[in-house]
Task: inverse folding
């Protein structure tokens, strides 16, 4: 007669407490629902975390993902997807800046914000700013984004002032992508600007990305004899006979965006 043996469960693991304090001296404390979510996941080996999280990614608060990513940095296959999801969510929060900046500048702001967040997540010695991501992620992201954006309001990117002064109030370029047979047109019609930005980030060469935005989304001419009219070739310092180079850049950008769009669907 065989005997069924079951192992006695050990004590439940609890999230590591935050170390920083408010200015009043009170300790930082995560919200109870975040603590509960973290505790639920960390009962499993780190290698299982992405399976658990991405089975229903919408269920998990971003503060939970920040904690998990910090405690999975030694597991690249776990840390990478968690960080990517955190940055994707942060990118979607930048919609309120769509009417303030052109897409090229917004892409730069998005990239700078991503670098700041990644640095705060992997920071060796916690700070109040880094730990606050586990308390109010949305509020901290907006604060950081506003800080980055302020620099671009004071010092606009090249041609930004020229475009405003010459053409006045322009329509949002995401609503006026000229091509009718590309995924960007469909996405723009749905006003999914967060997805547009993610597709743009799929373009690995920043020159290709910028050429695509200026030509396809801003509607700049490839070249214009009038030096007061911004053109794509002049922006990159090219001569008219070098247009094939920029056309190749745009084609490469479109290929990478189409591939990324296929993965999103």
Result:
């Amino acid at each position: 007669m065989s005997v069924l043996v079951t192992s006695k469960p050990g004590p439940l693991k609890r999230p590591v407490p935050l170390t920083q304090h408010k200015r009043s001296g009170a300790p930082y404390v995560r919200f109870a629902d975040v603590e509960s979510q973290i505790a639920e996941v960390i009962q499993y080996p780190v290698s299982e975390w992405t399976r658990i999280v991405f089975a229903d990614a919408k269920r998990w608060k971003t503060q939970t993902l920040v904690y998990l990513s910090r405690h999975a940095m030694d597991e690249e296959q776990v840390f990478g997807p968690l960080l990517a999801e955190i940055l994707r969510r942060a990118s979607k929060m930048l919609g309120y800046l769509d009417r303030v900046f052109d897409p090229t500048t917004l892409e730069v702001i998005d990239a700078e914000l991503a670098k700041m967040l990644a640095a705060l997540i992997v920071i060796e010695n916690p700070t109040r700013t880094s730990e606050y991501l586990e308390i109010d992620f949305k509020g901290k992201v907006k604060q950081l984004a506003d800080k980055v954006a302020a620099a671009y309001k004071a010092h606009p990117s090249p041609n930004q002032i020229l475009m405003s002064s010459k053409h006045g109030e322009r329509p949002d370029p995401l609503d006026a992508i000229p091509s009718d047979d590309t995924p960007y047109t469909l996405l723009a019609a749905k006003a999914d600007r967060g997805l547009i930005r993610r597709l743009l980030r799929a373009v690995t060469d920043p020159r290709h990305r910028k050429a695509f935005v200026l030509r396809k989304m801003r509607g700049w001419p490839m070249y214009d004899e009038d030096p007061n009219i911004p053109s794509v070739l002049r922006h990159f310092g090219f001569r008219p006979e070098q247009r094939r180079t920029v056309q190749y850049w745009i084609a490469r950008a479109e290929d990478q965006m189409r591939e990324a769009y296929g993965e999103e669907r």
